[in-house]
Design brief:
alpha/beta; 12-stranded mixed sheet; 7-stranded parallel sheet; 20 helices; about 15% strand
Length: about 525
């Protein structure tokens, strides 16, 4: 697994199905898979450790070439054992190796002690760590803390991480960057900023959401030749989405279809001063292929809308009563972009929630719901909600920091409370509409997307897909990945800084029309 996925190198054919679907696991499940694999393959824990260490070293050499010096930081756990194997194998290849130990031998497992003894018997050099140690050249291997970490770092580990990150040398992390929670992607104080992370047996879900992507660099996965029959004994907790696969579900454009058969998406929003947000959402529903797109907004915005996008049927409404007859024609409603929190805003949302139409609810519509100003029976509502961490926090009555400390838990709580398809936006956007199925994680997107209007366009894309007949979960998955991938293409073309939301439109169209006819 790489972000975005680049190759299947290092993955056994026996695990090809698991790899193809890019399944992710919690750390506890991966440890259980380790034990099952050891029994099924009739090997020892040390044998598995050797496989992991060899895989990590091969990735290092393949990606960076042979280093003139290797600094290996080892903790007392099995993660440190993998590091000792890397050090021993590198030394056997006549690569100079410095080992820095963080943990007492009496706390090490039998496998880790055996790996350490290989280094003692070989030519690796053991050095005592200090904040002034020489990391001016070479390459760093991070085997400090494994997948069991959560909470705060001990001072010695914090000092080592600060020193490693401050060296500006290339860093490979084994299984997960030290300091990152493998289950949540949270970082409490600091963590290794890896250039490459090699993860084994089952890819860890925390690598791909929250702050995990920020610290993991490129990510590659090796099943260590564990049979697929073993991997199938445990259920994944999450799954990385693939735009290539999701595009297969893109609604076909039947040559005989007319606009009314391709759905009608209505956007409701655009209070005074925020008309652009609602216009972006309405535009996005057209750009993704909705047959009709209408906009119910403040009358002051209608002229600007018609100048900007005359294909949108813009209606000025001053009250909920005036909106009500317009709700007879759409097949889906997008509510919230630029909605504001005025009495007008509340009326718009109330009328939308009173319909039986599927809804995509975003922005201030979520804030009005969080304030308790619009009350409805969520259990009978067919809807998608698309909060970022701040909006999710208000919906749950907690802080944004609490949401980001465990994004998976936040999605679960949102689903339990609001009975919706949840899209928790942010690095590694999460999607879930069922308490039983694995979370879906978007592997695309970039920091340039943190700008005005991006969320409005996403809401419009999802609404436009629902209008064309896609179910809420499928539309959410495809919409999120199309939006993020288009933003990646825009950033590659012109850079992340200054990326405008409207710049995703051209790339979006290219993605949904991959085989455009060319004439000589």
């Amino acid at each position: 697994i790489r972000r975005p996925p680049r190759s299947t190198q290092g993955v056994s054919s026996a695990a090809s199905d698991v790899y193809k679907r890019q399944l992710l696991f919690e750390a506890k499940i991966v440890r259980e898979l380790d034990d099952l694999a050891i029994d099924a393959m009739k090997i020892t824990s040390f044998d598995l450790m050797q496989k992991a260490g060899e895989s990590a070293l091969n990735e290092l050499l393949e990606n960076y070439g042979t280093p003139n010096l290797l600094h290996v930081f080892c903790g007392a756990g099995n993660n440190g054992g993998d590091g000792y194997v890397v050090a021993a194998m590198a030394a056997a290849k006549n690569i100079p190796v410095h080992i820095y130990e963080f943990g007492q031998a009496q706390r090490m497992s039998e496998a880790t002690l055996k790996a350490r003894s290989l280094c003692i018997e070989g030519s690796a050099e053991f050095l005592e760590f200090s904040s002034s140690c020489d990391l001016s050249e070479g390459f760093i291997v991070d085997g400090l803390i494994g997948t069991g970490f959560k909470g705060d770092l001990k001072n010695s580990f914090a000092q080592a991480i600060e020193c490693i990150n401050g060296s500006f040398l290339p860093i490979l992390s084994i299984d997960i960057p030290s300091g990152v929670c493998s289950n949540t992607g949270a970082v409490s104080t600091s963590a290794i900023r890896a250039d490459l992370t090699v993860t084994f047996v089952g890819a860890k879900q925390g690598l791909f959401t929250g702050r995990g992507p920020e610290f993991s660099g490129d990510i590659t996965f090796d099943s260590l030749d564990i049979p697929e029959s073993v991997l199938q004994k445990k259920s994944p907790s999450a799954e990385l989405m693939s735009l290539e696969n999701l595009l297969e579900s893109m609604p076909d454009s039947d040559s005989s279809a007319h606009k009314y058969q391709r759905g009608h998406c209505m956007t409701i929003g655009g209070d005074l001063g925020t008309g652009g947000a609602s216009l972006l959402a309405a535009q996005a529903s057209l750009k993704i292929g909705s047959g009709l797109s209408s906009l119910a907004t403040r009358p002051e915005h209608v002229s600007a809308c018609l100048v900007r996008q005359p294909e949108i049927m813009a209606c000025g409404v001053v009250s909920g009563q005036q909106l009500e007859p317009l709700l007879q024609k759409p097949t889906v409603l997008v509510v919230g972009p630029g909605l504001g929190r005025s009495s007008w805003s509340e009326q718009m949302l109330q009328k939308a929630m009173a319909t039986n139409l599927p809804l995509v609810v975003d922005a201030d519509a979520l804030n009005i719901i969080a304030d308790g100003r619009v009350v409805t029976d969520f259990s009978h509502r067919s809807w998608v909600i698309t909060p970022h961490s701040g909006e999710a926090a208000r919906l749950l009555g907690i802080t944004p920091a609490e949401v980001e400390s465990d994004r998976f838990s936040a999605v679960l709580r949102l689903q339990e409370k609001y009975k919706a398809t949840i899209i928790l936006k942010g690095p590694g956007t999460l999607i879930s509409s069922s308490l039983e199925d694995p979370y879906k994680i978007c592997p695309y997107g970039n920091s340039g997307m943190a700008t005005a209007g991006m969320g409005d366009i996403l809401s419009g894309i999802i609404g436009g897909l629902i209008a064309q007949g896609m179910d809420l979960q499928a539309a959410s998955e495809l919409g999120v990945c199309l939006h993020s991938f288009a933003a990646d293409r825009a950033a590659e073309l012109s850079g992340r800084k200054g990326l405008l939301a409207t710049e995703v439109f051209d790339h979006l169209r290219e993605l949904i029309n991959p085989q455009r006819q060319e004439f000589p």
